[in-house]
């Protein structure tokens, strides 16, 4: 039996398939954003003009930034000399999301003790060491944590759920990138690490 190679797709057919994919995927994406908006926490206060919803390999759904990294008018931070008008400095990135939103780790790492973190991160924050990638990640305001200090983190593993634990302004997650074994003073902007992709 002689096998006949498949004919390459015609350009017109490829274009039709692309249009069909767009017609199918666009409403699904819109539904994801609307579902997130429908579950909005009435306690949320946003200290940014950015109304974009972002997806990330770190969490499920598409969500807005509440408090960006750096100088902020959010009232939770002491005045910082780096900021004007007696504003405080936020060492991480807060992303508003419904309680119970799943949190994932795109990379392999190891959970380390969070005993050095204060109560501002909630009762059970995560501190994950990604030594081979050269950073530690603090994740605040988690509800349920699926890994404990000493556990290895697999790439793609579900590691926690978002909550309002220690967060008076509603359910969200706080992401803070630090140097390996570094303290608060080593925190740097985590936005690129989170690979935020705009959806609306």
TrEMBL record:
InterPro entries: Cell_wall_metabolism_enzyme, Dup_hybrid_motif, M23ase_b-sheet_dom. It holds the Pfam family Peptidase_M23. Keywords: Signal. Residues 89-178 form the M23ase beta-sheet core domain. Transmembrane segments: none annotated. The keyword Ion transport does not apply. Residues 1-37 form the signal peptide. It comes from the Bacteria. The keyword Acetylation does not apply. GO terms for molecular function: metalloendopeptidase activity. PANTHER family: MUREIN HYDROLASE ACTIVATOR ENVC, PEPTIDASE-RELATED. This is M23 family metallopeptidase. It comes from Nocardioides luti.
